[in-house]
Every structure is written in C-alpha cells, then in structure tokens.
Amino acid sequence: MNVETKKRTGEASPFPVLAGIVLYEPEEERLMENLAAVLPQVQHVLLVDNHSSCLSRIRARVVEQFGEERLMWLFLDENKGIAYALARIMDYACGQGFPWVLTLDQDSVCRPGLVEQYFCLTGQPEIGQMGCRITDRNFTEPGLTEGDGAEYQEVPFVITSGSFMNVKWYQKTAGYDEKMFIDGVDVDISYALRKAGAKVIRIPFDGLLHEVGHGKPVKLLGKEYIAYQHSPERNYYIARNNQYLQRKYPTEFSRIHTFLYELRMELVIGLYEDQRWEKLKNRWKGIRDSRKM
C-alpha cells in the first residue's frame, strides 16, 4: 500500500480533529457531498481506499474541488475489509497526535455543527466514544434515534459513521478486530471501549444523514422490522459475526438472544426479500464458519 500525507495546519478549534472515511467503489456524487459537509468541521480528512476499481477519476475530481492540503490518501492493494481500514485510520491518528477522530461511511453526510456539539463533551475524561442521532434516507432504523431528550445518554454502542473516537481510550483496547472484515465492527469496538472502562454515549443532536442498505419497513407477527435487502455476501458476514460476538462478549450477548435475532432475520428474509434462498444459505454458512474464528 502507499500513503500520501500532509502536515497538519493549525486552525482555530479546541484541538485538531481527523476525519477518516473508508472507501470501496464509492458513488461519486455522494462522496463529494460527504466531503463538502465534513471539511469545514475538521482539520484533515484521511481517505482509506479498499482497492476500488475506478478511484483515479473520482480522486481527480475531489482534488480539483477541494484541493490537496487537507486531504490524505491511503491506497490498499486489496480489499481487506472495513475493520482493517478503520484500524489504519486510528494508527495514523495515533502517530500524528490527533486526540479525537471522526469516522464516516463513504455515503454518509454529517450535519453542520456536529463536531462542535461533540466538542462540548470532550472535557469529560471517561468518555471514549460518542455518536449522534441519525436520519436514514430510507427509514427510521430502530435504536438509532432513541433518546430524544435534551441530555446525552450512555448506550451499548454507536455505529461507525458519525462516531467520534477518543484516541487515548482506543489505545487501551486491542483495536478494531480485523477478523470481522465487515458488519458488527462498530459493535465490537464500542464493547471493547466499555470493557476498558470508557463510556460510550449518544448526544441529543440530529447529526448525520445515513443510509443502511436499501431497506423497507415490514410487519412480522404484528411488529415492525426492517427488510434490509443486503446482498447474499453481506448476509454471510452479518450472521457469522453475530455468532462471533456472542462468544467474544458472552455476558453482553446471550445465546438465546442471538438465536432469536437470527431466527427473526431469517423469517424477514424468507418472507420479504429477493434472492431469499441464496441469502439464507449464506447466513447458514456464516454461522458454521463462525466456529473457526
């Protein structure tokens, strides 16, 4: 892999902030929107590309519109997964002395003022990670917009996109679990931080426009759930990593809860999604393969 770096510039803020974005075959317009939203809020952005096939044209447009002074690029020679790429972002932050890191998905757009809202709580030394309330383009995902009061609340985990990570607390963990590749990576690092003694909180601020697949709300036994329409390959990793997390954090994830969650997901796929058999077979393979992790 090859890395391009630039020196940080001192801008008026409590401390320098690095934003990290993992790329894989990004949609050009959404990425441009993402960068336009985050660059006014941070000092530098590190883009880690998981070996996209046509990044050169997109990169040329990014440089033309935003310049090069505040953008760093890291190009991986193969797709090693989101956990590996996020670990490289944190390695860079540690090496360059950034105290906090904002991580974003390539297709998420942060709201104006998000980082400023996070700054209000960075003086509390027990906080290891922060997230915000999230608006999904397709639906309101259960759990992402809980806690609509005026105070922040402790939560079990926050998703990667929009996460504000305390680098000192991160260094007290084993880091991102690169065996997971994709899915559950955000849950794992939040639980690792909490296990190390940090607090994970969600602030009462609608800070992110996000998209979880191309799902739709559906009804199952009188309750509303989401049919995510993830690809068969993605379903493999979801099922595999859920089982892995149950064994890694057995006091937080009971076997019965993990079993019931998997059963519910399979029922939703079987009743409401396309490619149902391919997805279900991939989930069963993922469950089997989780025993090797």
So how many helices? 9
| Total beta-strand segments | 12
Main beta sheet: strand number and arrangement? 10 strands, mixed
| CATH C-level of the largest domain | Alpha Beta
Arithmetic mean of pLDDT = 90
Could you give the distance between the termini? 26 Å
| Proportion in helices | 25-40%
CATH architecture group name of the largest domain: Alpha-Beta Complex
Give unreliable regions as ranges.
1-12, 141-147
Structural class: alpha/beta
C-alpha geometry: globular
Q: Approximately what portion of the residues adopt beta-strand conformation?
A: 15-25%
Number of domains: 2
CATH H-level superfamily of the largest domain: Spore Coat Polysaccharide Biosynthesis Protein SpsA, Chain A
Order of helices and strands: EEHEHEHEEHEEEHHEEEHHH
What's the topology here?
Elements: E1 2-4, E2 17-23, H1 28-38, E3 44-49, H2 55-66, E4 71-75, H3 82-96, E5 100-105, E6 109-110, H4 114-119, E7 127-136, E8 153-154, E9 163-166, H5 167-170, H6 185-196, E10 199-210, E11 216-220, E12 223-227, H7 232-248, H8 255-272, H9 276-289
Parallel strand pairs: 2-3, 2-5, 3-4, 7-10
Antiparallel strand pairs: 1-4, 5-9, 6-10, 7-9, 8-10, 11-12
What does this structure look like?
- The chain has 293 residues and is an alpha/beta fold.
- Helices cover 37% and strands 23% of the residues.
- It is built from 9 helices and 12 strands.
- Strands 1, 2, 3, 4, 5, 6, 7, 8, 9 and 10 form a 10-stranded mixed beta sheet that branches. Strands 11-12 form a two-stranded antiparallel ribbon.
